[in-house]
Design a protein that fits this description.
single chain; 5-stranded parallel sheet; alpha/beta; about 120 residues; Rossmann fold
Length: about 120
């Protein structure tokens, strides 16, 4: 059961698209962060059940967020949503603990497919 969600992207439009794509079954509060520093603050404050994370952001990028979560031993599923589709970016994100990778521009069905594959639905 998902009790809260954290969506992290420096683009407000991208955050809105992710939020609109979340499964209706979740019916959970959604918190938003525009950079990695805000993401970590909200993670500690709100303790979300799942995070959707962009990689390219100001202040602290998605890789930095993943590294911090890994260092803390977080078990929260992180789903990366990024336009950086280079093999190196994908492999680095997965190595740092991302559970899935969705390519931008994303389609609403992409989120549902990934959360089903991860057993979050």
């Amino acid at each position: 059961m998902i009790n809260s969600v954290l969506v992290v992207d420096d683009s407000k439009m991208s955050r809105k698209l992710v939020i609109r794509s979340l499964p209706e079954e979740w019916d959970a509060p959604v918190f938003q962060a525009a950079n990695g520093m805000e993401a970590l603050e909200l993670y500690h404050e709100k303790n979300p059940d799942v995070m959707f994370l962009d990689l390219t952001m100001p202040e602290l990028d998605g890789f930095g967020v993943l590294a911090a979560l890994q260092e803390e031993g977080s078990k929260m599923p992180v789903i990366v949503i990024s336009a950086d589709v280079q093999t190196e970016a994908y492999e680095r994100a997965i190595t740092l603990g991302a559970r899935a990778f969705i390519q931008k521009p994303m389609k609403p069905d992409d989120v549902k497919k990934v959360v089903q594959e991860l057993g979050l639905l």
